[in-house]
Amino acid sequence: MQDKLIIFDTTLRDGEQSPGASMTKDEKIRIAKALEKLRVDIIEAGFPIASQGDFEAVKAVAEIITESTVCGLARALDKDIDRAAEALKPAKSSRIHTFLATSPIHMREKLRMSPDQVVEHAVHAVKRAKTYTDNVEFSPEDAGRSDFDFLCRVIEATIDAGATTINIPDTVGYNLPQFFGELIKNLIENIPNSDKAIFSVHCHNDLGLSVGNSLAAVLNGARQVECTINGLGERAGNASLEEVVMSVRTRRDIFTCDTRIDTTQIMNCSRLVSTITGFPVQPNKAIVGANAFAHESGIHQDGVLKSRETYEIMRAEDVGWNANRMVLGKHSGRNAFRSRLEELGVTFEKEEDLNDAFSRFKDLADKKHEIFDDDLQALVSDALQDSANEKIKLVSIKASIETGETPKAEITLSIDGEEKQAKAEGGGPVDATFKAIESMVNSGCDLQLYSVNNITNGTDSQGEVTVRLDKGGRIVNGLGSDTDIVVASAKAYISALNKVLDPSQKAHPQL
Ligand code: KIV
Ligand code: ZN
Predict the structure, then answer these.
(1) What percent of the chain has pLDDT over 90?
(2) CB–CB of 310/304 below 8 Å?
(3) What is the tens place of the pLDDT at every residue in 326-365?
(4) 203 C-alpha vs ligand 2 centroid, how far in Å?
(5) Collapsed DSSP state (helix, strand, coil) of residue 403
(6) Which of 266, 291, 427, 428 is most buried, by the most CB atoms less than 10 A from its CB?
(7) CB-based contacts of 94: which residues, under 8 Å, 6+ apart?
(8) Nearest ligand atom owner, CA of 174
(9) 291-309 pLDDT per residue, tens
């Protein structure tokens, strides 16, 4: 009988802390549903005190998710813990995750607290969280650079106060696998009440070692790993869920534990997170990169054809690669459309949203006869975005290019329900389009990134455009897709504007 390795997904919290990855409530709900289908044990849905938007998002996830525990983050402050508890009230199963830094540099420079005060605050925070739920996690932030004896003291005290999970964060990604593994082993061996809590790890990827450190910790007794889809997260990111899960699954000969993850859902989650955040997955990324199962060299191709195991340690279909099969076409009906979306974890609360998405699907099927899952995800993103109460909507667009002529665009927008029109010229049709939009909105934003990816292969593929805007340090990503990349670009720009101009959206997910 193997031990259970708990998978704690923090895509919606730490993942959201990547600049520009901030998500709306509806986007968080879509990802949370996909994570539930992936069978993650715990979904950290956000940091409720950070903003009204984050509070609402955690609450909405808590209302909808039934098969995973929903967690909210809180500093070791009463107001944070109370707010997290309030957001988590509707959850069938909830956890409060509270944290306080324990490294000398953080205590001295950031907290301006003595070690004794840190212990006192941490214990108080855990006790307060316990008044709301039995399931309390405590993280000594920057544990990876903390003094060992002090760390033991804080952990022993917080377990005595009722923490049921102790999470050891390598907050700045400073640790190396061998030493991090030993740290976990030594903590478990030296802390007298360590058997009363599950030990967890939360590793950042600043040296590219987050997965290595997490796995070393598991080999030394950790039984929860905190991770994110595609390794999204603050700075260089967190340990990637798919890499941790597939390492443990593939090397059953070494690991004595396993997760309950349905690995066939990995690709679906990866694509969804990439589409929603606008962070493309690098082609050579392990497990989910476009080249992860591609064999280019003749020797490899020959070997794989003779026996797959010559060059493959995992099967592409086990992580959901083949699930992106051609699903629907021009003649597919509404029921087939609805049921494929349900398989992808997408359900519509309102019948009119389903109807709208279905009519977009029909339009797309007229332009592109093979519709793949990625097309459907992009289409749903667009439909949900438009149905939201957004300030700016695209009504129509006319863009023209001609050899020897200056590219032009003519745009009609609906701004707060009122139609406005503008024309502009630019270096290309996309430039002209953005200039025409700006002449009506005057957002004062800087364009930080503009990128186009084709969603599937072929020249009839939909282009997926990411636009990143910066307004006074507040960074947002907007996404748009269409078979016409000028239209996709206009949609992406407008989506970013709607996020940046929405006062309920937070400046940065972590205060
Ligand atoms: O990196 C970190 O230390 C964190 C904590 C809040 C767990 O994200
Ligand atoms: Zn973190």
Answers:
(1) 67
(2) yes
(3) 567 788 888 888 888 887 778 887 888 888 888 888 888 8
(4) 7
(5) coil
(6) 266
(7) 62, 69, 70, 71, 72, 88, 133, 135
(8) 1
(9) 888 766 667 777 777 777 7
Note the ligand closest to the C-alpha atom of 169.
1
Token look-up 């519709």 returns: 371
Q: How far is the CA of 162 from the centre of ligand 2 (A)?
A: 23
Taking all residues of the chain, what is their mean pLDDT, rounded to a whole number?
91
Residue whose CA lies nearest to ligand 1 atom number 8:
14
Q: Find the range with the poorest average confidence among 84-98, 253-267, 289-303, 484-498.
A: 289-303
Beta carbons of 5 and 252 less than 8 angstroms apart: no
Q: Which one is predicted more confidently, 474 or 239?
A: 239
d(CA 40, CA 5): 10
Burial status of residue 253 (CB atoms within 10 A of its CB: 0-12, 13-18, 19 or more)? exposed
Predicted confidence band of residue 385 (pLDDT cuts 50, 70, 90): low
Structure token digits, residue 358 = 């279905």
Atom index in ligand 1 nearest the CA of residue 13 equals: 8
At residue 273, φ and ψ (nearest 5 deg) are: -65, -40
**For the residues 387-408, what does the mean pLDDT come to?**
90
Q: Which atom of ligand 1 is nearest to the CA of 141?
A: 3
Q: Atom 4 in ligand 1: which residue has the minimum CA distance?
A: 171
CA of 273 to the centre of ligand 2 (A): 18
Q: For ligand 1, which residues put their CB under 6 angstroms from it?
A: 14, 99, 139, 141, 167, 169, 171, 202, 204
Q: Which CATH number fits domain 390-501: 2.40.50.140, 3.30.160.270, 2.40.240.20, 3.30.1330.60?
A: 3.30.160.270
Residue with CA closest to ligand 1 atom 5: 141
3-277: CATH number: 3.20.20.70
List pLDDT tens digits, range 222-241: 999 999 999 999 999 999 99
Tokens 């793949």 locate to: 372
Q: How far is the CA of 231 from the centre of ligand 1 (A)?
A: 14
The whole-number pLDDT of residue 386 equals 62
Q: Which residue owns the Cα nearest ligand 1 atom 6?
A: 99
Distance 129 CA to ligand 2 centre (A): 20
Query: In this structure, which residue's CA is closest to atom 3 in ligand 1?
Result: 171
